[in-house]
Amino acid sequence: MTDILAEVADQVLTITLNRPAKKNALTPGMYTDLNHRLAEAAGDFGIRAVVITGAGSAFTAGNDIMDFMNTPPSGEDSPVMQFLATIHNFPKPLIAAVHGNAVGIGTTMLMHCDLVYAAPDSKFAMPFVSLGLVPEAGSSLIFPKLVGHVKASEIFLTGRNFSATEALEMKLINGIEELPLAKAVEMAKVIAEQPPEAVINSKALLKSADHEAITAVMRVEGELFGMALQSDEAATAFMKFLAKKQKG
Ligand code: COA
Q1: Ligand 1, pocket residues at CB < 6 Å
Q2: Do the beta carbons of residue 140 and residue 221 sit within 8 Å?
Q3: Whose CA is nearest to atom 38 of ligand 1?
Q4: CA-to-CA distance for 129 and 135, rounded, in angstroms?
Q5: What is the pLDDT of residues 56-89, one digit of tens each?
Q6: If you take atom 26 of ligand 1, which residue's CA is the nearest one?
Q7: Residues 210/141, Cβ–Cβ less than 8 Å
Q8: What pLDDT is recorded for position 244?
Q9: Which CATH class is domain 4-179?
Q10: What percent of the chain has pLDDT over 90?
Q11: Atom of ligand 1 nearest to the CA of 136
């Protein structure tokens, strides 16, 4: 059993986050595997688009909180920071199929995807502040640009969930689908049949205006996030998560 599954069909690579017992919470090993898979896909002429989805009842519950406590990521070489850089710079179309919980990086990674489909039961959240942390993955720049400052402040500063309907209104997702994976694969196959260089160059053009600014903000977020992970506020929030778990 591996926590990351990868399958190629019709020039589309489908990556499945496969740790369903933990709601696909992401570990350093999973980020490392994702980084390898995406690097291979970037260099493989036979892969034209990548779909990312989650096994079981959730897309992903975000970074593994035990890992945040026991082995906090430090610096740009850490697997999670490498993963963020990888998706920010990924040259081919990245398409997400979301269902259930998409927490933390489970929502922020969508801001680096080119198309996103979500099931009606999807529940998005970026509870960084509630955890004593700060937004990551460039979301402190990308999200307010998408939804406006006051909406972004409401979501980030309260840490509240939002639904698929709200995500659609925010333009975070393309559509609400009963079968988001089927839709994502269908769209990936349509794109896979397009002239590949034109697809890659067009994606780069679509991303170019903000690319450098996002790189810069990700660096600042990374530094603040690393410091916040060591803070009393984060320690208290993580202990609260553990206490809830122990109570069952
Ligand atoms: N890190 C580590 N373990 C996690 C996890 C995470 N981010 N999210 C869920 N899990 C584990 C739970 O501890 C539980 O493990 P257990 O069965 O050994 O007790 C299992 O996954 C199932 O989660 P549970 O909380 O029982 O499911 P739920 O459906 O009641 O709630 C969530 C789902 C996602 C709302 C809830 O698990 C949650 O809030 N997780 C934390 C999300 C988070 O804060 N992520 C970090 C963002 S920066």
Answers
A1: 22-23, 25, 61-66, 101, 103-104, 127-128, 131, 245
A2: yes
A3: 61
A4: 8
A5: 999 999 999 999 999 998 889 999 999 999 999 9
A6: 245
A7: yes
A8: 86
A9: alpha beta
A10: 95
A11: 48
Per-residue pLDDT, 154:
98
Q: How far is the CA of 103 from the centre of ligand 1 (A)?
A: 9
Structure confidence by residue, pLDDT tens digits, 172-218: 999 999 999 999 999 999 999 999 999 999 999 999 999 999 999 99
Q: Mutate which of 23, 26, 66 to test ligand 1's pocket (most atoms within 8 Å of Cβ)?
A: 23
The pairing of strands 101-103 and 49-54 is unpaired
pLDDT tens, residue by residue, 26-36: 999 999 999 99
CA of 199 to the centre of ligand 1 (A): 37
Task: For the chain, give every domain's residue range.
Answer: 4-179
Contact 87, 38 (CB under 8 A): yes
Q: Give the number of the atom of ligand 1 that is nearest the alpha carbon of residue 57.
A: 29
Laid out side by side, the sheet with 162-163 consists of: 101-103, 123-125, 162-163
